[in-house]
Amino acid sequence: MTTVAGKRLVDGYALVVFDLDGVIYLIDRPIPGAVEAVARLHAEGRAVAYATNNASRRSSEVTALLTGMGVPARPEEVLTSAAATAELLRDRLPDDAAVLVVGAEALRAEIRAVGLRPVSTADEEPAAVVQGYGPEVGWVDLAEATVAVRAGAPWYATNTDRTLPSGRGPLPGNGSLVAVLRTALDREPDVVVGKPEPALFATAARRAGSGRTLVVGDRLDTDIEGARRAGLDSLLVLTGVSDVPELLAAPERRRPTHVSFDLAGLFEPAAVARVPGEPELGGWSVDLTAAGLVLSGAGRPLDALAALCAVAWSASVGPVVRAASPAAEEALWALGLPA
């Protein structure tokens, strides 16, 4: 079995840290079941925090968005990459130092809030360049940042998410905009603050004291890798960016502790699986062939996934899976895998 009968996943942790986009909401609409899950945690008196790489909203704005959806969040529970980057710059630069900001107004506001001065051009001789996601970022912004970095200003990126989720599928994220500067400058940013760097999760985990922390995310390359780098357990929910094929092909640094279809996995033992499992698990059997993985038997789709992870990860094979039984075909369909 992948879970202990009757034991809820959440009961093993003092703090649950949620990513937002793809876990709690999608852009500005709650993901089905998310509001109820967070409300249940609050009703049980459990500690909750939110860690987001989205640098286009301030903590207060995120709190307002959450409360507008029915989630009773407080600003001190919300950790954003914009605020973390501003605090880092505050510690490294003199008061009122000029900082060239490429991103949304929320990032400029965070820079002002720590006593620094946001500017828009390289001619203002910025002491640093900070780059975060903003839907209005254009060529002129990127050009000014390029000039400033070439003149010697250190380059800070709030995060490097290649994409961000939307109702129309993944769209270019800050990592894609960072890639423009990376190409123009032929170098990496000097500092990346957001996930998968461990700072956001480490800050949240300190609030749990001696208790254990669980990170819940939808992205292997940010949420899950960041949790592992912070030494924390993680739950991958399949409501956002990362899917089952990506999970089966994940390198070790991006492998979660648990996986579930959605946040029901926090409370229902049957709705979550610990990964990897065993090649023979819960009525399933997985064999490795020259053509890929073969799934046979019958049982829970999540048990099939745990068994598939066991073989795929140990053999470092890709997500090519063939069904050897009608039940296996149904399980692979439920997991989003072609049979």
UniProtKB/TrEMBL annotation:
SUPFAM superfamilies: HAD-like (SSF56784). Residues 282-337 form the GCN5-related N-acetyltransferase-like domain. Gene3D superfamilies: HAD superfamily/HAD-like. GO terms for cellular component: cytoplasm. It comes from the Bacteria. This is Haloacid Dehalogenase Superfamily Class (Subfamily) IIA/haloacid dehalogenase superfamily, subfamily IA, variant 1 with third motif having Dx(3-4)D or Dx(3-4)E. GO terms for molecular function: phosphatase activity.
